Amino acid sequence: MPTERPAVQPTPATPGATDRADRVRAWYRDHGAAVYNYVRYHVASPDAAEDLTAETFLRALQAADRFDPATRGERPWLITIARNLLRDHRRRARVRQYVNLHALRDLASHAPSPEERLLYEEEAGRALDALAGLDAADREIVSLRYASGLSGPEIAALLGISEANARVRLWRAMARLRTALGEIR
Amino acid sequence: MSDDFWATPPEEARDLDRLFRGLEFRPRESLEPELTGRSRTSGEPDPAPRRRWMTPLAAACVLGAAAVAGWYERRVTTVDWCCGDLDGGGIADDGIVVMARRDESIRRLALYEDRDRSRSLSAADIVRFERGAAIALAGNPPPQSVTLRHCCADYDGGGPPDDGILVVGVPPDTVLMVGLYERRKEAPESQALLR
After folding, report:
1. What's the rounded Cα separation, in Å, for the pair B44 and B36?
2. CB-based contact (8 Å) between A29 and chain B?
3. Is the ipTM of this complex over 0.85?
4. The sheet that has B146-153: what strands, in order across it?
5. Interface contact A58-B35, CB threshold 8 A
6. Which of A99, A131, B14, B163 could pair covalently with B155 via S-S, beta carbons 3.0-4.6 A apart?
7. What is the pLDDT of residues A128-158, one digit of tens each?
């Protein structure tokens, strides 16, 4: 996942269909991978993640007039929309979603051999399964840290906590995750 | 993403930190064109958020308008029409005052002779006939009585000039009964409802 975020100029508000499409395309190219990865940490299937990602950008388009680039960046805004959609998604699902390895078809891998890729998928699958077993706050801080592409201060601002508190939360969540992984193994 | 912010992870979290930092999911390639296509049809901007006070205000406006409309419909209007030869006397000096609700029953009706040529009912005029809501002919009309029709004008304030007057009297100056009727296209004048 890219760690450097390109500077993005806010797109001016325009009403036409072509302009809307251009705006969504620009947003998606700049932030699509981050939104998808963030969502993907919370849902078990690539299909659900794709639906939620698409819905995030369409919602953003509908709310574009209310977005003020002077007060926040585009990515924190989009991640906030995705968070709200995930909340609704979980409310509807009401079930814990276990990750199975077949659901990792969208996992990027640089493993040099099929065997190593398989091992990597198993390891990632276990980690995500353990993550799915944590409470919502732990999942949130882990996914924001590793998948959203947001900076530390942006994450702290999004969660409404101090930066120091964000750090403490993350490492505590990771400790619980490690414990959960030990139980899975 | 600044790694400095998170500092060095605790020893027990380093392997997981490494794993998650390398974890990357890739959405299918077709998601971007699909999303772009959907945005053309379903990405209409939301209407401006409605202010909280707008709803009660709008409701109050609707209720107010309905009340005004109801009052307008129920209000009693008075029409003073002048002048014409309503009683058959040969001189167009008669006027009629009608108090009625719009297109409804008549509250009061008076036929007068505009003596002072003021073209409205005044103290100098002679009221030839007066009645309330009920329309009735007192007793049998004398053999020389005549029935006169005058059509059409807006005598009751209903709006369109579709009202006719039916006057039973003995010319030149005796009026026994005055009624209003509404002329309708679908019915002959003789079948109009007198009120």
Report:
1. 13
2. yes
3. no
4. B146-153, B163-170, B174-182
5. yes
6. B163
7. 888 988 999 999 999 999 999 999 999 999 9
